Amino acid sequence: MPQDYTYAVARIRSKELSLFSQKELDELLNQPDYDSCIRYLSDKGWGSDREKQTSDELLKQEENKLWQLMKELVPDETVFDFFRVSKDFHNLKVAVKAATRGAKTDGMYMQNGTIDPSVIASAVENRDKNRLPDFLRDIAQQSITTLLQSSDGQLCDIMIDKASLDYVYSLTQKSDNEIIRLYGELFVAASDIKIAVRCCKTNKSAEFAKKAMAECDTLNINSLATACAKGFDAVCDYLLKTSYKSAVEPLKKSPSAFEKWCDDLLTDKMKGQKRV
Amino acid sequence: MADLLQNSGLFFALLGAAFATFFAGIGSAIGVGKAGVAASGVLAEEPSLFGKVLIFQLLPATQGIYGLLVAFLILTGTGIIGEPKDITLLQGLLYFSASLPIAFAGLFSAIHQGNCAVAGIGTVAKKPDQMGKAIILPAMVETYAILALLVSILAVFGIPNIK
Q1: Predicted ipTM beyond 0.85
Q2: Is the pLDDT of residue B32 over 60?
Q3: Which candidate from B34, B45, B118 shows the least CB-CB separation from A14?
Q4: How far is B45 from chain A (nearest CA, A)?
Q5: Do A186 and A255 have their domain in common?
Q6: Disruptive mutation site among B46, B53, B111, B127 for chain A (greatest number of A CBs within 10 Å)
Q7: Packing angle of the helix pair B131-158, B50-58 (nearest 10 deg)
Q8: Is A22 in the same domain as A81?
Q9: Does residue A86 lie within any of the structural domains?
Q10: Under an 8 A CB cutoff, do B44 and A14 touch?
């Protein structure tokens, strides 16, 4: 029997009232300093009742509240795995660097992944890959070996990031839900475009860019990697031939404009779900 | 055998009363239940909307009442309640037929009205000031339950004249 989300939908609709309106966003932007912004957010119910909180603490607490709500509303949390596994891969990166280089991990682990960060940390530290879930096992082994043999932290990072993108893509494309498949496609395509631009700006080779990119249906990573070795204009020219031609303008403007374009694109595609 | 057939008029009439109560009641129970689940979701975040969401939850309850009303009319018309009457097989079958409009229109309209009420509760959760508009939409579904009720009542009232 399919899960009935009537209660969850009604509760989320009520929650929408607590989202910031344009007026409240303007008020927040008009706050004179950092402390006033934090006070404004605290007055709106953000974070905890604790006196002094940083913006990071506020955001972390809000994220924790959100996942707590999801746990209450959706009995089977695995439906959110495609959102949460990126945190597991991030935690793996932290654990691998901590285990091989003795890097400090204070505040580096992310909560609300599919597995407890301490499990990843201890599995990596003890080289006990059997304690890791299947999707982390091989990449954990490969990244530790790479880091120990080459001491190339960047290579280790791109290996784990690519594995993360590949896994998110495979999870979303397996879904029966069209909007989840679309999310996966857009998420991976946007990540590939970001990688291409970053590789351009740091003069990386096509080979390196290709290693970092994940396959998706709407982009040809061979063409994108080749373009990024030729330069930023070549990347833009390639994108103009794809369904992401509207990304070129924000890409030329600034990285934050492109981030906004990615968010707007996803939000726009999700809008139809509000009336389902 | 002839006696049995003659006396089964009352059985069919009672079956009609049972259908009217049973199916319209099931529809209302499903509709009210669905709307209640959605209402609880809203109240968990916004308890002040209790009065508004309660009205939406009660909308699909009417079909059950209509079914009860038709059943009551059949029970009194056949003498199961009150003064005993002779009910022929034809009359029994007619009472049974008369119960069908409210039984089935009640069942389906209550379920769909419940779905519509759930959507209305979602609207009120986001825009409490749009209560008036949001309530009209599920109320439209009621039309068809009322039409079925009318047909059932008119039929039940007309049956005693048919021998």
Answers
A1: no
A2: yes
A3: B45
A4: 6
A5: yes
A6: B46
A7: 30
A8: no
A9: yes
A10: yes
Consecutive 10-residue runs of chain A (276 residues): their mean pLDDT?
A: 82 88 93 92 83 84 90 86 92 90 81 91 88 92 88 88 95 89 91 91 89 92 91 92 91 90 86 70
CATH topology of domain B9-161: Four Helix Bundle (Hemerythrin (Met), subunit A) (1.20.120)
Q: Which residues of B touch A (CB under 8 A)?
A: 34, 37-42, 44-46, 49, 118, 121-122, 125-126
Domain limit, last residue, from A132, A156, A174: A174
B144: pLDDT confidence band, cut at 50, 70 and 90? very high
**Domain range list for chain B:** 9-161
Q: Which domain holds residue A20?
A: 6-75
Give contacts of B126 with chain A, Cβ < 8 Å.
13-14, 16-17
Q: Long-range contacts: B127-130, Cβ < 8 Å, 24+? A: B128/B49, B128/B52
Q: Would the CB atoms of B42 and A15 count as touching at under 8 Å?
A: no
8 Å CB contact of A14 and B37? no
Q: CA A167, A111, A143 angle in degrees (round to 5)?
A: 45
pLDDT tens per residue, range B100-116: 999 999 999 999 999 99
Cβ atoms B141, B108 nearer than 8 A: no
pLDDT at res. B36: 96
* Minimum distance, in Å, between the CA of residue A64 and any CA atom of chain B: 17
| Tokens read off for B158 | 């007309």
CATH code for the domain of A104? 1.20.1690
* CA gap A91, A113 in Å, rounded: 9
DSSP state of A202: T
Q: Do B46 and A13 touch (CB under 8 A)?
A: no
Residues A183, A264 within the same domain: yes
- Is A62 a domain residue? yes
Q: What is the pLDDT of residue A95?
A: 92
How far A13 CA sits from the closest chain B CA (Å)?
6
CB atoms within 10 A of CB A180: 17
Q: What pLDDT is recorded for position A147? A: 86
Give B25's contacts (C-beta < 8 A, 6+ positions apart): B64, B67, B68
Q: Which of A100-109, A194-203, B20-29, B89-98 has the lowest mean pLDDT?
A: A100-109
Does A7 contact B at CB distance below 8 Å? yes
| Token pair listed for A156 | 């280790």
Confidence tier at B1 by pLDDT (50, 70, 90): low
What pLDDT does residue A2 have?
67
Total number of domains constituting chain A: 3
